[in-house]
Write a structure and sequence with these properties.
5-stranded antiparallel β-sheet, alpha+beta, 4-stranded antiparallel β-sheet
Length: 117
């Protein structure tokens, strides 16, 4: 029984790797989710981005901090077309991020702030 469980687990890992591929942007980047939408920090901490993965007509955005930003002064990247969008690259690293969905007539739905060092 234990051997069968191990084989099933190995098969699932292999299938997941085949479906997702091996990609440094996926494996070593940092992700924060709001529903199916997400914000991310690239593995080199130079770019923040946001991806709209819900087909609901609402735009998504990320608020993020770079090391140069004073506390309480964050930046924003928005995606309105159901795709992904990102900030420009900078030597001032991104270290704190959240993902938000822009909801008209209601407070925006946002993940909690997450830090990545």
């Amino acid at each position: 029984m234990r051997r069968r469980t191990m084989r099933i687990g190995a098969a699932l890992i292999g299938a997941t790797t085949a479906l997702l591929g091996v990609n440094s942007a996926f494996g070593s980047s940092f992700y924060v989710y709001q529903g199916s939408d997400y914000a991310y920090i690239t593995s080199n901490h130079q770019i923040a981005g946001v991806c709209d993965r819900e087909v609901d007509g609402f735009s998504v955005y990320t608020n993020y901090y770079r090391t140069i930003d004073p506390d309480g002064s964050y930046r924003r990247v928005e995606e309105k077309g159901g795709l992904c969008n990102s900030s420009g690259s900078s030597s001032n690293v991104v270290w704190k991020i959240r993902a938000c969905e822009n909801l008209p007539l209601a407070p925006d739905a946002c993940s909690s702030w997450k830090e990545h060092h």
